[in-house]
Structures are given as structure tokens and as C-alpha cells.
Amino acid sequence: MVLCLQSECLYDYIRIEDLSSEPDAERFTRLLCGHHPTPVTYAISGHVANVSFFTDYDTTGRGFHVEWKAVNTSQCKNQWLNEPSGILQSINYPISYLNDLVCKTVISVPDPSRIWLKVIDLDLNEHEANCSDNLTLYLDENDASYSVVLCAWNNSDTPLQFLSLTNQTEIVFKSDHFHNGKGYQIIYKTGERFIF
């Protein structure tokens, strides 16, 4: 995308709005201008969006190209898994997760097995440093104090590893109504003995 180069999107720009928000709610609105050699991705939480192009009479660029797709959010419902291994990831991973989500996944295996979780990729966005987009791993089904909350400041190229204390673990992903990251990808395995 090449529009008139400017720092504050005053002349030539694209405005993207989420029109499905409640009338009094703060709507998702983004302005996009300048030169973007790689695709820019945005996710809106609703089913109605408005993309507007604004231009003036002066300098011109090549313009822009927009693609969109609908994302099935039914996979965000509560999931119950009992497979001995698998891969978990946020909706729309690795493009951009959606706004206003609460997705729960429970992994339950026969006792005395435990569940090893390896967070391969974690790319969450923060809003005002309050951890509003987060991934919580409950490592003991009977005691919520044995949980780990991962936020934007945990984003890392180094995988994070966790071992459940019981034969069941719950993973809860929450997002707010602001900016989004790629999301997360976790691999898990079950067993009675793990060597680290």
C-alpha cells in the first residue's frame, strides 16, 4: 500500500471502523496512511465494518488493496480435550486474534498423568499496561492459586514451559476491545514422567 507519505494521516488515508459495536461503546477505529511494504492486519469483533478512503487534490501514490475474511468464532466456545497430545492456538492465529474474547480449554487425562505445556509463540497486545489481553494457565484443577497469567510483557522468542500439578489443566484466553497481536500457540503432551 502506498498513499501520500505523512506522519499524522491528515491528507490521504484509509479509515477502518467496527460498526457493530454498541452505540455508546468506544468503537474500533484505525487510520492508515503512508507506505506499508508488508500487509497490515486488523481484526474487528463484529460483523459490520466500514473502510473509507480519503484523499486530497495534491500528491498521489499507487493506492491500496484490501482483502477481508470472516473468522469462525465457534471454536472459542468451551473446549474439553482428552487427547494425549495436541496443539492449541488462538482464533485466527497467526494473523491477529479478535477483540472481546473469552476462550476456555480444559485438558483432562487419566490420573496419574500430568500435562506438559510449551508456549511456542506468544504475541499479545497490551492496553495501558494493564494485562487486559492475557493467557491464564491453571496448573491445578483444585487450586486457582497455582496459575500463571501471561501478558504482553511475556512475549518472547524463547518458549515457556509449564507442568500441571494434577491430571487436568485449564487454559483461558481473554482479549479486550483494543489492539491485537498474533495470539498464541501451545503444544502439549501428557505422561507420568517428564525429564527436563
Task: Please tell me about this protein's structure.
The protein has 196 residues and is mainly β. It has two domains: 1-70, no CATH class; 74-191, Spermadhesin, CUB domain (Jelly Rolls, Sandwich). Helices cover 0% and strands 36% of the residues. The protein contains no helices and twelve strands. The chain has strands spanning 13-18, 29-32, 49-54, 79-81, 85-89, 102-108, 114-123, 134-138, 147-150, 160-163, 168-174, 183-191. The chain has a five-stranded mixed sheet, with no helix packed on it. Strands 5-12-7-10 form a four-stranded antiparallel sheet, with no helix packed on it. The chain has a three-stranded antiparallel sheet with strand order 2-1-3, with no helix packed on it. The mean pLDDT is 82.
User: Considering the protein shown, what is the CATH homologous superfamily of the largest domain?
Assistant: Spermadhesin, CUB domain
Shape: elongated
CATH topology of the largest domain: Jelly Rolls
Radius of gyration in whole Å, from Cα?
Answer: 20 Å
Q: Which structural category do the helix and sheet elements fall into?
A: mainly beta
Main sheet overview: 5 strands, mixed
User: Helical percent range?
Assistant: under 10%
CATH class of the largest domain: Mainly Beta
Order of helices and strands: EEEEEEEEEEEE
Query: Termini distance?
Result: 47 Å
- How confident overall, as mean pLDDT? 82
How many DSSP helices?
0
Based on the structure given, which CATH architecture of the largest domain is correct?
A: Sandwich
Query: Strands of the largest sheet, in order across it?
Result: 4-6-11-8-9
Unreliable sequence segments? none
